[in-house]
Fold this protein.
Amino acid sequence: MANVIVVGAQWGDEGKGKLVDILAEKAKVVVRYQGGNNAGHTVMFGDKTFILHLIPSGILQDNVACVLGNGMVIDPKALLKEIDELKVLGISVEGRLKISDSANLIMPYHILLDQAREARAGKNKIGTTARGIGPAYEDKAGRQGIRFVEIGRDSRFKSKLDLLVEDKNLYLKHILGQKNGFLDSDQVFEDLMAQYQRIEPFLCNSQKFLAEEMEKGAHLLFEGAQGTFLDVDHGTYPYVTSSNTVAGGACTGAGVPPTKIDRIVGVVKAYTTRVGSGPFPTELNDADGAHLSKVGHEFGATTGRARRCGWFDACMLTDSVRINGFTDLGITKLDVMDGMEVIKICTHYIGPDGERIDHFPHSLSLQEELKPVYEEFPGWKQSIRGLTDFEQLPENAKAYLKRIGELLKVPVFMVSTGPKREETIILGDLFTPRA
C-alpha cells in the first residue's frame, strides 16, 4: 500500500487533472479533499476531452472509486450536472462515487453573496469564480453551514434553513445594497430536497470508507484543487481561495492521519501562470508572455478567464517545497516552450531597498515590489510534442529540467509533453515503496 497526495505547487492550473488521471490507473481510490466547483481539471486522451470540476479525475479510469471528502464544499446542482454530463459521455459513477455525509453544501445564497460582494468591491475585488466557495466556507467556520448528513435526518432542518435564508436576504439588502433577486425559503427547500433525493445513494461515512480501504491494502491518491499560493493560510492573502490547498489539507479534508501518507507530488508548469488578481513577480507583458498564453491555451477551464503568464519562479517554489514537503515533481507544459529563443528561471528577488530576498515574503505590499533576478537558458527550438522517452528530449530541454530539480532539491518523476494522457514521460513508479 502507498498513499500519494498530488498538490498544485503554484497558483493552480498546473495540470493536476492529467497527472491524477495517469496515477489513478494504479490507485484503488482517488479523493478530493478541499474546494468545490471552482476547480477545473482537464483530462485528454485519444480524441476525447473531459473537464471536471468536482468529481476526481480518477473517475475516467475503470474500477477506481472516487471520494468527495469532508473538507469540500459541494454545490448539489453543479454536482448533479457533472454526473449527468459524464453519463452522456459514457462514464458511469454508479457504485464508484462516494460523497462524505459531513461535507458542507454550497447553497444558492452563497452564490448570490459571492457575486454581490465582487460587484460591490469594484477594482478591489479578489477575483473569485463567483461560485459561492468563500461564503460557504465562512458559514462552515461560523457553524452556520449545512452538511448533507442533517438534511434527511433532522426534523429541525427546515426551520434552520428558513432562518438562514432570511438572514442572507437581509444581508444582501441592507449591507450589500441589493434591490432584487432575493430567495424564497420554501423554493430553496423544495429544490434542495429534490437534489438530495438523487445524491443520497452516494453519501457515506467517507473517513470510515477510506480507513477500510487502507486496511485492505488499497493505494489511495489524494487530489488537491487550486495551488499552494492560493492556500488561505500560506498563499498571497487575501488573493487566495478559502480552503487549505497544501498537502496538510489532505489529512484534515479527507480524515486520514498524516502517518498514512507516503509521497507528496508537487505539480508545476514549466513556466508560471495565475488567474485573477494578486501579485505575480515574474509576470510577462511582452512577446514571451504572449507566446506562453497563446501556445499554452491559457484560459481557465472553470471561468474561461485569461491566465497571466510569466517565467518559472524557483524562489517562490522553494517555499512551496518547504510548506508541502514534496518528495517528487511533475512538470507540465514543457512543450509550450518549444521554439523560444531564451528561457528564464527566477532564482531570487531584489527588494525595494536593494536587498537580496531568497524566499516569497508574506507582506502583500512587499510581494508587489519584488524584482526577479533570472538565470537564462537557451531554448531548444524544436518540437518535443508527444515524446515519451526522456532521452529523446533535446539537450537544452534536459538542462532546463535538471536545473529546476537542482534549485528545488526535489527529483522530477514526470514530464508532460502535450495535453493528452499518452503525451507523457514517466520516470518512476510512485506506488512502489522507496528503499
Remarks:
- The domain at 104-198 is CATH 1.10.300.10 (Adenylosuccinate Synthetase, subunit A; domain 2).
- Residues 5 and 280 are 26 Å apart (CA to CA).
- The chain has 13 helices and 20 strands.
